[in-house]
Amino acid sequence: MSSGKVSYLQWMLQVLRRSVDLAGFPEEVYQILSKPERVLMVSIPVRMDNGKLVVFEGYRVQHNSALGPYKGGIRFHPEVDLETDMALALGMTLKNSLNGLPYGGGKGAVKVDPKKLSQGELERLSRGYARAIAPLIGDLVDIPAPDVGTNPQIMAWMVDEYSKLKGYNVPGVFTAKPPDLWGNPVRLYSTGFGTAVAGRVAAEKYLGTFEGLRVSVHGFGNVGQYAALFSAKFGAKVVAVSDTSGTVYDPNGIDVELAIKVKESTGKVINYPKGEKIPDPDASLYVDCEVLMPSAIENVIREDNVNKVKAKVLSEGANGPTTPGAEKVLYERGAVIVPDIAANAGGVVMSYLEWVENLQWYWWSEEETLKRIESIMENNIKRLISKYESLRSEKGLVTMRDAAFVVAVERVYKAMKLRGWI
Ligand code: NAD
Is 53 exposed, middle or buried (0-12, 13-18, 19+ CB in 10 A)? Predict the structure, then answer.
């Protein structure tokens, strides 16, 4: 690119390159994983409410299937393009692999701003996209799920459309469906739960315990609320939470259930009745605490503010909250970061469990589902930490993010080797 700015695909390829080199995998691993196995581009004609026809562009990228069926979300966003979708699909191959799931990676997208569509237009677009990709997906082939701009209702329309085409119900072809249509109620809080589990496992390893530690959570949406709630349930003291309205700080501990109720009823966490109210939403990044869970948006911990961050253990609920420069500073200072690809995997682990339920036409209780997510997440984070520790002693300063990509590529590499692809 002429601006010198690296595209998301270029960045992902650099990550892949570094993992292959760091672990000493054969060059063929890079050659295969730097390209998707298959790409589908579709056009979806939709009759709008005003009678006009608009043709939307969509994609489904099937990146790698060495570990199992392709799996990854569908994004509805005005700025997606095929290149971004290819990068996201590669990311899913690595995320599914790292988290021990029997899946390859895929990703779908439609170039659209869903906020500008009526409910009827959104339904017609969702059904049209499902019809367009139907020849290449299936509950044992490619299993999409929601991503930015899509949600459980859209999955319900898509699973209905796909089932109609087949002539029988196929619940397992899309995941994160509504609980009343073959979904699982734990999906609502599985990502935040996983972020809390990741923080707990890392704190136990590096700080000796999680109980009684001070936790701060940046972002109080789907991920942040439940990361905070389960951190408190695991015995930590949640001292700060924030959303765009500001930060609530209470060194004696925040009543997270009350904070969630306040957020639900008023839309702003700053209306929480106790503690100190700080107008800066980023103040939660800087408060005195041992564990920080950045769970809002990307690039919030940067080189220009990293010196104010005091936490020793970070669990990244959000995607990409720490820039590479800030990450380096934190590691030099002795902090560790459980990277997003591991710390926010509770959702994809839940998707896997929902798919297993659907394939068997069987349902686990909420309690049983949560126990399964917890044990999968705990094992994944422990395996990642042990890889990080061994790479650190062999190769000097590497981050847990580096170790995560090495673990991810290694599993795909072994599967490809056993299958005789390389
Ligand atoms: P959300 O929209 O429900 O919540 C985002 C929260 O962040 C809101 O409370 C918002 O007020 C707050 N926020 C936004 N900008 C902020 C700022 N500058 N300072 C402080 N707070 C700010 O979104 P979500 O579903 O909770 O997702 C959060 C992050 O987690 C995103 O990066 C997303 O990609 C990632 N993620 C989510 C899931 C999931 O299952 N929801 C899964 C994996 C990754």
Answer: exposed
